[in-house]
Amino acid sequence: VQFVESGGGLVQPGGSLRLSCTASGFPFSSFDMSWSRQAPGKERELVATIGTVGATTHYADSVKGRFTIFRDNAKKMVYLQMNNLKVEDTAVYYCKPVLGFGPWGQGTQVTVSS
């Protein structure tokens, strides 16, 4: 089981980024997926989840209306479209099944700063 996140970077407040996660080693389409983030000195925070076919999504209140999670089961990928980014969105972002199995990936750093 492996997760490889990408797409992070440095962006100004109000900007956008799209994160990607490639999953392998398990039947991707059978599992709900999630994005989490961890800011320096803080605990990991669940940001968004998506059901197996993408019809059901949930978001943390802090990102609702700004972030969109979606997936491509054929490619075994899950994405996080982040719009209207804020300084407080700065963190390392990770993807994983909602059930939590498998090792954490290396994550992708998102830095929002002017």
Descriptive notes:
There is one protein chain. With 114 residues, the protein is mainly β. 0% of the residues lie in helices and 48% in strands. The strands form two sheets. The chain has a six-stranded mixed sheet with strand order 2-10-9-4-5-6, with no helix packed on it. A four-stranded antiparallel sheet has the order 1-3-8-7, with no helix packed on it. It is globular, with a radius of gyration of 13 Å. The mean pLDDT is 97.
List its traits.
single chain; 114 residues; mainly beta; 4-stranded antiparallel β-sheet; 0% helix
| Helix/strand class | mainly beta
Strand content: over 45%
Look at the structure and give the mean pLDDT: 97
> Major sheet: order of its strands?
2-10-9-4-5-6
- Large-scale geometry: globular
Termini, distance in Å?
37 Å
Radius of gyration: 13 Å
Unreliably modeled segments: none
**Total strands:** 10
H/I helix tally:
0
Roughly how much helix do the residues carry, as a percent range? under 10%
N to C succession of SSEs:
EEEEEEEEEE
- Main sheet properties: 6 strands, mixed
Summarize the structure.
With 114 residues, the chain is mainly β. The protein has strands at 2-6, 9-11, 17-24, 33-38, 45-50, 57-59, 67-72, 77-82, 91-97, 108-112.
